[in-house]
Structures are given as C-alpha cells and as structure tokens.
Fold this sequence. Notes:
mainly alpha; about 50% helix; about 200 residues; 2 domains; 9 helices; three-stranded antiparallel beta sheet
Amino acid sequence: MSQVREFSKAIRATASLWMITVVVYPLVIWIIGQVIFPFQANGSIIKNAQGTPMASALIGQPFNGAPRSGSLRDRYFWSRPSVVDYSTGNTAGITGVSGASNLAPSNPALKERIENEVKKLQQANIQPTADLIYTSGSGLDPHISLEAAKNQINRIAQARKLDTNQVKLLITQATESRFLGIFGEPGVNVVKLNLALDQLNK
C-alpha cells in the first residue's frame, strides 16, 4: 500500500512541476515581456511613420541596393562585412542563417578578403577601422564603432547634399551606450542610422 502512495505522490509531483515549467513560468515571462518590454519582446521591430515594419534593430542589413561601388550604396553608412550577407541569401543562397567564415588566420582566403575590404574603404576615402574590415561572429551585428561612423560623415553628406552637422546629429541619435553602463563600448546602430537618413531626405 505504501508503494501505491509513493507512486501517487510521484505522479502528483511530476504533474505539478510540469504545470509550473510548461504553463505557469512561460505565461508569466510572456506577460512580463508584453507589459514591461513590448518592443524587445516582439523582435525590436522598427516602423516608419506609417507604421509599416522596416527592420529589426537587432539584425543588420546590407543597405546595398546596388553593387558595392554603386552610387546608391554611397548614400548609406557602410556596416560590418558579413559572410552571410546579413542572412539575405545573396551570398549564402539561403536565409535565416548566421555565422562567421571560420577561416584560420593562416588561410590565404582570409587575407585576400581583408585586403579587398581595405582597398574598397580606401577607394571611398574611408579610414579603415577593425569593425569595417572584420566580420562579426554572427554575421548579423548591426553596430559599428563611433570612429567607423564618423569616418563616413563626409561621404554621406556629399552623396545626400547634407550639412555634416546634420549627419553628426543622426549618428548621435543612433548611438547606443555601454550595456548597463559598464560593459563594452558605445556603438552606432547602422540600421537605425540609415533609416533615419532616408526619413531626413523625404
């Protein structure tokens, strides 16, 4: 009889834990997210003035619209290189992926890619910085350093016929501070910055 009671107790404990971990806990987290952090909980989606979703603030975009040397690309701030082309499928052939090239420092292909990036930056009169040369681990990072953004001010101002102070103000508005005020370095969200540029030119 004691074995039956122990078995019944185990069943009730298992059912209670299942209810807590599968139903109660996810529901509480979902409610907290929707009430306190709705923007973050729903993908950090950036919308235009008409309310149309344009992008996620968490994932970078190529902002090409033309080949790398094309004039249309000159109208946008350049972001970090991405071996998955920010998961658009243009390079990898498929979407929804992230990752780096995993090339070893001794690999000639890595050296060639870096040299090509430096050459493209120099041809555009942009002072090369590490984040404009090297890819991120995810290939989706939407941020560049303040230095990398400031090095592109003159090119953007000239391409869009803007005052450099206007461009500097947009950089300031798109700059995100250190995490919790102490971790990492301030970074410029290129997605927010380029979308703000388009709004400015309307």
